[in-house]
Amino acid sequence: QVHLVESGGGLVPVGGSLRLSCVLSGSLLEKYGMGWFRQAPGKEREFVSVIAFNGYTNYVESVKGRFTISRDNARNTVYLQMNNLKYEDTAVYYCAADDLRDSTGTYEYWGQGTQVTVSS
Predict the structure, then answer these.
(1) In the structure, what pLDDT confidence band is assigned to residue 110 with cuts at 50, 70 and 90?
(2) Whole-angstrom Cα distance, residue 27 to residue 93?
(3) DSSP for the chain?
(4) pLDDT score for 84
(5) What are the residues whose beta carbons fall under 8 Å from the beta carbon of 82, sequence distance 6 or more?
(6) Torsion sign, CA atoms 80, 113, 4, 103
(7) SS in 3 state form for 33-66?
(8) Which of 6, 18, 80, 106 has the fewest CB atoms within 10 Å distance of its CB?
(9) What is the pLDDT of residue 104?
(10) Pair 47, 58: CB distance under 8 Å
(11) What is the mean pLDDT of residues 54-82?
């Protein structure tokens, strides 16, 4: 079965950096489009970034120029490098996998989340 496990969250001051990791087990990373989402307390979950099968990447406007998504298929790991962190980036960050072999266009698998707290 496919499982996703995020790590790398923590407490960081404004302007600092963190690198989140998401390890996929039970399948091959290259079979999935991988996305990062986040959810702050009292707010809805929002899209942050995606890396598709063909290497296409996209980001929510608020993180462009600060966050970089990448993946290492050999390690079955997706990363989210977060630089110049802002207080507004505080949230639980979730990794998600979209099975590229289906036609749903949805993310079938989700990790448990990792907390990112940016001090103001």
Answers:
(1) very high
(2) 22
(3) --EEEEE--EEEETT--EEEEEEEESS-GGGEEEEEEEE-TTS--EEEEEE-TTS-EEE-GGGTTTEEEEEEGGGTEEEEEE-S--GGG-EEEEEEEEETTSSS-S--EE---EEEEEE-
(4) 98
(5) 17, 18, 19, 20, 63, 66, 67, 89, 116
(6) negative
(7) EEEEEEECCCCCCEEEEEECCCCCEEECHHHCCC
(8) 106
(9) 79
(10) no
(11) 96
CB atoms inside a 10 Å sphere around CB 65: 9
pLDDT at 25 over 90: yes
3-state secondary structure of 120: coil
At 76, list the tokens.
Answer: 């079955």
Cα dihedral: 61, 64, 67, 68 (round 10): 110
Check pLDDT > 80 for residue 119. yes
Average pLDDT over the chain, rounded to an integer: 95
Reference 33, options 94, 95, 93, 98; nearest CA is 98
Higher pLDDT, 23 or 55: 23
